[in-house]
């Protein structure tokens, strides 16, 4: 009887939760000479970036279960896979958002050239009234820290020179009537096309100079060499301005010159998806978005933890998100039809041969549509079918669904020139809008019908999502 009582007692203290939760048995930090971490035990809360939605992790049947009219090798065989949680842009990256990237690179280049020309600085008043105001911050600071003095004597550190930080508080003047002095004018004018290359008297930036420099980690090299040192890093210098000629190159015998002239820069198209960007340019944008958040966190008096990097979604993450939480969903809205019960189209695509819009009353567009014009899917994502196709991180292979893992599957070959493109576009027929339909494009190609959206990982340890508002 005593033994039975002890067994019952031990069973009664066992947790009834699958998570095994309960009160901790460890003592206070640093007590009795035990090794006890002093870090705060507060649960991590994932901060939802503005314009993104949280996609909960889960498993689903990937591939194309519907009829394949083309019998092409791109058809994906059915396969059950599991995907972790992540944040995803609720809509495609817009022209306005990409122009923030363009303007940042433009300003960085201009400020760097001005800082070099300013030398030791001067008495410009600190408000951009003379080129001396644009000197590097280290040239204007009087009381350097010991670390800053060390770096100045050592010439900086590998990969980043702290002595050459730019002073972003000083305003730039792009209006020629506000140039503060001749030296400033000489630097700024070098950013523009020479007069001999201009059409009429219009001053245009030399966009070939707009290059974004960054570094990324090559995981394949790290695995091959079993180390994560200097050989792990790769440097990129990417010309980031979109190829606006795609509107003419993609359609040789069509009059698309107005879009070539206006689509990217005109304010009428600010809420339209950016197109004409290569896979490398989309990845550079992801790095810039990561840098933007990192710089903000480091500027705070009480610095936040380094943010998780933004990136392109893997092909399987994209398909999982497109299905909106519905198993065997033919389209992102679930059903097998391209119209709702009112007879309105549910996406922007080419409804009939030679007919790109059929009837404006049905909700279709001749070319690209503004983002968020069609209903969102079950995860809160817009335009996961039609409008513009979207770059994914994954290398493309006809058989990748067969050999890839069932846990967060992805093909990571950086050297492979083919990249998976998903979702179908404004110039595609309804078949390409299916959640299981696959397509690809060379990563160095830019098209008038390919854009992108970004994602950010959610740590498995995150307990909930914290909302971020304007």
TrEMBL record:
Annotated Pfam families: FGE-sulfatase
Taxonomy, superkingdom: Bacteria
UniProt signal peptide: 1-19
Domain Sulfatase-modifying factor enzyme-like: 51-455
EC class (word): transferase
SUPFAM superfamilies in the cross-refs: C-type lectin-like (SSF56436)
EC assignment: 2.7.11.1
GO terms, molecular function: formylglycine-generating oxidase activity; protein serine/threonine kinase activity
Sorted UniProt keywords: Kinase, Signal, Transferase
Record protein name field: Serine/threonine-protein kinase pkn1
